[in-house]
Design brief:
6-stranded mixed sheet; binds flavin-adenine dinucleotide; alpha/beta; 7% strand; 51% helix; 474 residues
Length: 474
């Protein structure tokens, strides 16, 4: 089976050169189920060339720290082993920071002289600018593959969507075509004559790496285990309990999806195997608890439908936002109605004001907010429901929406394993700036951006238990 041409975009118009085919791996740290790698292999087989995978490791990328570094390195080490078994070379470029990494890449490709370069797609600015820089400097053909979205972002929609309600029907229509199984990566028949440098993994892992690992272990094998456990044990309660941070109903897959250690498409395919219905039917099953009373208890299909809504529609909506909105991480990216509404509230007195450091150290007056911050500090992940409350309160307790947005992104990117992701930028923009939401009743500070009250959390789950759980761990 060959890869759909609509997944691929040319990053320059150059012809094929004489050297090996190279896959510059970026967003997708996995050997299997990776359309970009599969495409690179397809080209290498067609042109009878060796295949080389290169990863540009940038320590401290977009504010990520030790936990992210260990998690990523665990994944990369596994990729190197998996590729070796397939006779595919793996090269690691070690860049000191984001500023110089583009230049390091250009230099590497100048020295290596590939015949074709393939990369994976991400709408995040740093990666887009590396692609642009490299596209200009490479003398050979350079192509980009959307290996993250089930429906490639440029096929799903040609413009920024207003919300899930406008993207959903477009995605649903295309799912039957794009939700196909992956072929296996083949053992590659052509080798590099001179080999590649050996990687000293031990030197790359930071000192006290074990302490920095947190509760998540990186790599595709671990990702599959987390997925299997979720599908077996948590999916049957997903629709009803996923918004209760005291119940383990969410998948915990976001760190793996963020680093590409697991393809969202694989997760969707495995979920579909549990059901005896085509995907078009599953995505239309009832999705929320409100319907339970009307129509009886939810069935597995309903839970799967709710899960696929998050995994496919909401996730791909975030990529759509960052791809088409160049201001995805500033207030200028908010819809006009929200910017105007927030502007009117600039001089409204804030009852509480905190510095970035006070937020960071979980030192606000609100024990529930502090507990959510502690959950993120301790586990490198905050429950999805608490993330909304957490970001909205930052808006309430800072001097301006600009400051709130900056603080929320800083904390999310620094402490979350799944941070520095389109989902993070869209999620924070939803909470603070009404992105993908509609206007609500006007309130102080929020204007018509949706408000979230502590009492809403109290009604939904036992907030005292949640506070006690994370205070203890603090
Ligand atoms: P599950 O409920 O099991 O969902 C499965 C997958 O669906 C997730 O891994 C994710 O890929 C996708 N998904 C679920 N909810 C959403 C959503 N609301 N929007 C987009 N995709 C979704 N997600 C991140 O991946 N990285 C972030 O940095 C991030 N920051 C956020 C910040 C705020 C303020 C908000 C409100 C949301 C943020 N989200 C982020 C979205 C969502 O909260 C997380 O994806 C989810 O909590 C991850 O946990 P899970 O994998 O167990 O989720």
């Amino acid at each position: 089976m060959s890869i759909k041409k609509t997944r691929i975009r040319r990053a320059n118009e150059n012809p094929v050169g004489d050297g090996p085919v190279m896959y510059w791996m970026n967003r997708e740290i996995r050997a299997e189920d990776n359309w970009a790698l599969l495409y690179a292999q397809e080209l290498a087989l067609e042109h009878k060339r060796p295949l080389v995978v290169v990863y540009n490791l940038v320590l401290g990328y977009l504010g990520g720290g030790g936990v992210q570094q260990v998690f990523k390195l665990q994944g990369l080490q596994e990729v190197a082993q998996d590729l070796e078994a397939k006779n595919i070379s793996f090269v690691l470029i070690n860049s000191s920071d984001v500023e110089t990494s583009g230049k390091d890449l250009v230099k590497f490709f100048e020295d290596f002289q590939p015949g074709i370069v393939v990369t994976d797609f991400s709408p995040v600015r740093a990666q887009m600018s590396w692609v642009k820089e490299l596209g200009k400097s490479l003398t050979c053909s350079f192509q980009m593959v959307d290996a993250h979205n089930i429906v490639p972002v440029w096929i799903a929609s040609p413009k920024q969507e207003y919300g899930a309600y406008t993207l959903r029907p477009k995605l649903h229509k295309k799912l039957a075509k794009y939700l196909e199984d992956f072929p296996k990566l083949k053992k590659h028949p052509y080798s590099l004559p001179e080999g590649v440098p050996t990687i000293n993994w031990q030197k790359l892992f930071p000192e006290n790496a074990k302490e920095k690992t947190g509760i998540f272990q990186g790599g595709s094998k671990e990702a599959e285990k987390v997925m299997d456990t979720f599908l077996r044990e948590r999916l049957p309660v997903y629709a009803t309990d996923r918004n209760n941070p005291l119940v383990e109903a969410q998948s915990d897959l976001s760190p793996y999806l963020h680093y590409g250690m697991l393809a969202p498409q694989r997760v969707a395919l495995e979920a579909m195997k549990l059901l005896d219905a085509p995907v078009e039917v599953v995505v239309h099953a009832k999705k929320n608890k409100a319907k339970v009373d009307e129509n009886g208890p939810l069935e597995l299909m309903d839970h799967a439908s709710a899960f696929l809504e998050e995994l496919i529609v909401r996730r791909e909506l975030s990529d759509n936002f960052c791809f088409y909105n160049k201001n995805y991480d500033t207030v200028e990216g908010f819809p006009e109605w929200a910017r105007k509404a927030l502007d009117k509230e600039r001089t409204t007195k804030r009852e509480y004001l905190y510095t970035k450091e006070e937020f960071e150290q979980a030192k606000t007056h609100d024990e529930l907010w502090n507990a959510a911050q502690m959950e993120m500090l301790v586990t490198s992940k905050m429950h999805g429901y608490m993330r909304m409350y957490w970001a909205k309160k930052i808006l309430e307790w800072t001097e301006s929406p600009e400051e709130a947005f900056e603080v929320a992104i800083y904390l999310n990117d620094k402490y979350s394993l799944d941070g520095r992701d389109p989902n993070g930028y869209a999620g924070i923009a939803w909470s603070i700036g009404g992105v993908h939401d509609r206007s609500w009743f006007a309130r102080p500070i929020y204007g018509t951006v949706r408000y979230m009250a502590r009492s809403g959390c109290d009604k939904r789950f036992d907030t005292k238990d949640y506070i006690a759980k994370w205070q203890e761990r603090g």
